[in-house]
Design goal:
four-stranded antiparallel beta sheet; 411 residues; alpha+beta
């Protein structure tokens, strides 16, 4: 049987095949990249690319360039304006000054064996501190605190902001290369991708959250989650979504929850784009395919959430003893907005700040010009423009809607 499978597959140009019964694993090369897929009874049931080849080297190179551009930009700004470690100023203001510096000192003691997460007297009269750890301190970047003295925690905080924003640029560049691979083959496309990645990392939101850096872990994990959603809609493996969701929750369950909710919106968007890209649409087949995407998405998300339970579930139990928060499902009936929708346009400007009822989504003029070009271009179909417009409108409404589902569940 294995020999028959080998003869059948090599006739179509595969380099190697491992066959067993009606199943076969075929390996070939496309665009000088290793490409694998699994067949059952001569029908392809799963396919995936392995790392390697020229395009992947471009992805790695552009991601590193994006990372270094953002990191060097942040360090240069620190130097110019006298921020630590080059001066006496620090990004530790508001919550960072009130909470994070002390929490980093506590984590340093834990890593050095001088304190404990399971039982500590650093929290009130003593007790389990897993909730505090999972909420504030579970980011992998926080492990770097062991290299800093407690007197140098301002330097450590500024370094964290630079590292997390730079990582956001790298992951966003990876997303662009994988999501828009056909546009990233030219030098112009790669250059545009790097600029967009830098703009994403240096957006108003990221800079504003320098005082609340636990939120930045969600920023650099979001592109990987969205990439996982895209691959599900492209009939690829869902393991990427599961892994990225799990890591996002482990690195910070609060922002991980926000990313999970947004991934649902992105799934609808990707499905809409796929349908709009088809020349002929059969309603029954489209609905069936959409249901299959949703089921695969649900299983992948469930796998990601369940695999994060090693840290998330103890946190849930710890929060259950807290008097803060509650489930107010009655707020779901409130469809009012906390601010006017046009405030998004007013807030999209250099130096704008977000406040209650007024959101600033500024991430550079390049993104704004590209968004406008999408709607005025004659090369983009009207139905695709409608999908983009719905996504933009839905995203803005979700930000300003009073009955935010996430607030109801987690605040």
């Amino acid at each position: 049987m294995a020999g028959k499978a080998f003869l059948y597959c090599t006739a179509r140009g595969e380099d190697a095949v491992l066959g067993l019964g009606g199943m076969s694993l075929a390996v070939c090369r496309i665009d000088n990249r290793p490409y694998c897929y699994i067949e059952r009874n001569k029908m392809k049931i799963h396919s995936f690319f392995t790392w390697g080849g020229r395009k992947d080297s471009h992805t790695l190179a552009d991601s590193l360039i994006s990372f270094m551009l953002v990191f060097c930009t942040m360090e240069c700004l620190y130097m110019i304006y006298g921020y630590a470690p080059f001066g006496d100023r620090s990004l530790a203001w508001s919550d960072a000054n009130i909470q994070y510096l002390d929490l980093f000192a506590y984590l340093k003691d834990v890593l050095e064996g001088k304190n404990n997460i399971a039982q500590t007297f650093s929290s009130f009269l003593g007790g389990n501190n897993i909730g505090t750890f999972s909420y504030y301190l579970s980011s992998p970047f926080n492990l770097l605190v062991v290299f800093f003295a407690k007197s140098a925690l301002h330097d450590f905080l500024d370094l964290l902001v630079a590292l997390k924003t730079a990582t956001a640029a790298a992951t966003f560049c990876i997303f662009l290369h994988a999501r828009f691979r056909q546009h990233m083959e030219s030098g112009r496309g790669r250059g545009m991708g790097i600029l967009l990645a830098v703009a994403y990392a240096l957006s108003q939101y990221n800079i504003a959250q320098s005082s609340n850096i636990m939120w930045l872990d969600g920023v650099y994990m979001l592109p990987l989650i969205l990439l996982g959603v895209y691959r599900i809609v492209q009939n690829s493996s869902g393991w990427g979504l599961s892994v990225s969701v799990s890591l996002s929750i482990l690195f910070g369950w609060y922002t991980g929850g926000i990313n999970c909710l947004f991934s649902g919106l992105w799934l609808c968007f990707e499905i809409a784009l796929r349908i709009c890209g088809e020349k002929q649409v059969d309603l029954a087949e489209t609905l069936a395919q959409g249901c299959r995407y949703c089921v695969r998405y649900a299983f992948s998300m469930a796998a990601g959430v369940l695999s994060s339970m090693t840290l998330f579930w103890p946190s849930v139990l710890a929060m259950g003893n807290s008097k803060r928060g509650g489930l107010e499902f009655g707020r779901l009936k409130d469809f009012s907005f906390i601010g006017p929708l046009p405030s998004v346009l007013q807030g999209y400007a250099l130096g704008a700040k977000s406040s209650y009822g007024n959101v600033s989504l500024y991430c550079g003029s390049l993104a704004l010009v590209g968004c406008i070009a999408c709607f005025v271009s004659k090369n983009i179909a009207v139905k695709i423009k409608a999908a983009f417009g719905t996504m933009c409108g839905g995203g803005i409404a979700a930000v300003l809607l009073e009955s935010s589902l996430y607030d109801i569940l987690f605040i």
